[in-house]
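Each letter names a residue; structure tokens follow underneath. Both lines appear below:
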Amino acid sequence: MFEVKMPKLGQTVEEATIVQWLKKEGEPVKEGEPLFTVQTDKAEIEVESPTSGILLKILVEAGIEVPVLSVIALIGEENEAIPSEYMSGSPSVPTKEAIPSDEKSPQQKEEVPKESSTQKTDTIRTESYHSGKVIASPRAKKTASDANIPLELVTGSGVGGRIMSSDVQNALSNVPKATPVAKKLAEQEGIDLRTVSGTGPHGKITKEDIEKAKLIPKKEPSPVSSLPETLQRIPLTPMRKIIAERMSQSIHIAPHYYITVEIDMTNAKSLRSQLPFKVSFNDIVLYAVVRTLREFPSVNVQWGGDCIIQMPDINLGVAVALPQGLIVPVIKKAQELSLEGLSKAAKELITKAQNNKLLPDDYTGNTFTVSNLGPYGVDHFTAIINQPDSAILAVGQIKERPTVVDGGIFIRPIMKVTMSCDHRVIDGALGGQFMGRFREILESADFM
């Protein structure tokens, strides 16, 4: 019998909350297969099974915060006896509730039919079904498809608003009862059963009811709206709570001020087209940030209460937007990387973030952060400093704009960039000098 323990998720993580078990007791598991998800102080992470066998017993339910290395489950052979000390839960876990009682975890909300070992379980990963803003588990997608219910009409109760199969079942319970012939005819005629009054036994909709509904003139469809019909209270996910706490703390403790520059990206575009390897404009921006920080180490600092802490390495945070919130993976020792190496490191971290594979060491230790909303068509914005940094760079889109050059007006690719600075550490003159040099580096694009 194998004891599954809460893994050590980083040097600074002492406790973590189980968000969801991806397997049920009695189900087979394979080594390396996702077994459960945990919420640390910044991110939700998938944890893989350390061995193969049968999940004999779950000792710590979802929604519970436990110390690392605590025994949380048992894996063994089918029908293997469970030691008596584990029959009432893990003997080594001083558990405490981490999720309020009115916010049940996805595991508590959904009773999932047992699957065979060849079927996939629902996971909060990139294989989840995406349709616009709709995020649904594969099982929920199948249930909705079989019942001919658009997922856009279902309210999700899972993490980040994810639609679970139980949500689809709840939506099904609100669909009026109808005879098979009436259902088929309604589907052929495009008639919503919820708009039809049933005259059959117990209000069941019959073929005749559909025939009558066909004679009623159809109203012009009203514009599709994403607004709810009534006030809704959406429970906060653990990640959203953390984001709210961190951002509120940062804006209150750090006196922010902002410096904006416009940068001509003509040479940067030319450089990108000539490179023998592929990089994004964001990679070029990150590299220019590192180059500038090497010349201005007094910006790569942290507030120490009674001192200013000079950081020996440039650990570059890169903001990544996920459905459940914002995460900032960190490129460690970025000053040692080439443009190609920096680009590769950024892509690897972003992919890990999107697949919920980041470990705490991947998103801690930042000394400077870059947030880029250019891909969303944003021209200009200001960002809240990502503690414990003393500055954050907000990057807008590259846009063709008329620009005066040597007395003439030309159309150039211009990018607006704003740095938010902590005035306790970075004075206005220093911030201005930093941004001026950053602009020079990007406009020259002399990276070769």
Observations:
- Residues 143-215 form a domain with the Dihydrolipoamide Transferase fold (CATH 4.10.320.10).
- Residues 320 and 326 are 6 Å apart (CA to CA).
- Residues 94-127, 129-133 have pLDDT under 50 and may be disordered.
- The chain is about 25% helix and 25% strand.
